[in-house]
Amino acid sequence: MKKISVKKPKDDNFWLRIVSILIAIVLWFYVNSIINPIKKREVIIPIKYNMTTLSKGLVLRETDAKEVRIVVSGTQDELSKVDEKNIQAVVDFSDIRQTGEIKLPVTIQNPYHRINIENVYPKNVTVSIDNLVTIQRDVSVEISGNPKKGYIINGYQEEPNVISIRGAESDVKEISKCIAQLNLSLNDRPFKASVPVKVIDSRGKDITSLFDLSQKSVDVYVEILKTKQVPLSVKFKGSLPPSKVISKVILKPSTINIAGKEEDINSINEIIVGTIDTKMLENKSTFQFDFSLPKNIKSLDNVKQVTITIYTDSVVEKSINIPVEVRGLKPGLVAKLSPDKVKVALKYYQSVQDSIDFNSLKAYVDVSNLTKGSYDLQVFVEKPPNVEDFEVSPIYIKVEISESSQPQSQ
């Protein structure tokens, strides 16, 4: 038999290579087990409910979980590269065809191949599935606050005033009303505002977030009017006999509160309720007029009729000569008046003649702060009550102020 011989390596490089490989393997195990060991980490991932897979006509009403806790493992280097946003927790509805409470698995989508999913909690979630319905509801506007002082709200209009509401059938049954809440903030002009719509349940709770609304807001047009209090008056036609006058006119009510656009209100200073023929007047006459207002003006009072009472009287004229008093004369001075009397012509109504105290009629000049000298001073008159008018003649008199010739008493 032929003998086979093995050639011996010419040098020791072969064994050195073998030893190097063994050392590398040992170092690899050392680095991965000591320097870069396998570790675990807990992350919290929001659950994504894949609504696109839910059958038409059904809706997810509520769930018992919004997130899952996931324990992942890997080397320290690999764990440091993990971005929680890239890991997804998904619930699929593809197999759901009925309403009620259903338990579904949570599927974890992990894009990191060197990271292992050790644990998931919860692994399943309970969901409530309901019928998806759509209804229509009126929107009512609720106004808070007040307009600026001197202004009122005349009304408002919302657009649209009906909206569609889509949501779970059991939630829709809880709806009590739809409102748009508007704060005036001391407005003094008509305005338009876009106001959010709120869906309210029977307990007054805002449940808007449960639904899809065809309109999340409505446009509200608010009309604001300026207010004003103006006197009521009456017109007369014809004339009374020369000896007769209208002594008093009483209107009930005598004023009225009105509202209107600012330009209309500013042009109104009084409202004439009617015209009376003076030929119809007696000593006391009463008339009634149905109340009417100018166009575009609104009454704020419940006034339907105005009662007017008119008194007529005879005018009496009487002239009285009375002395002129000097008031305000300083001590040690005397005053000489020229003339020292004036004539006062009084006018008053005959019906009050007996109540007039003619002795209380006074005429005087005021010399306060005046010293010696000659002055032309106005004559003032204090008239008795119930005297309607007077004239004094002359209106000015001459006043000479001089020192008193008599010594003052000590």
From TrEMBL:
<keyword id="KW-1133">Transmembrane helix</keyword>
<dbReference type="InterPro" id="IPR012505">
    <property type="entry name" value="YbbR"/>
</dbReference>
<dbReference type="InterPro" id="IPR053154">
    <property type="entry name" value="c-di-AMP_regulator"/>
</dbReference>
<dbReference type="Pfam" id="PF07949">
    <property type="entry name" value="YbbR"/>
</dbReference>
<keyword id="KW-0472">Membrane</keyword>
<protein>
    <recommendedName>
        <fullName>YbbR family protein</fullName>
    </recommendedName>
</protein>
<feature type="transmembrane region" description="Helical">
    <location>
        <begin position="14"/>
        <end position="31"/>
    </location>
</feature>
<keyword id="KW-0812">Transmembrane</keyword>
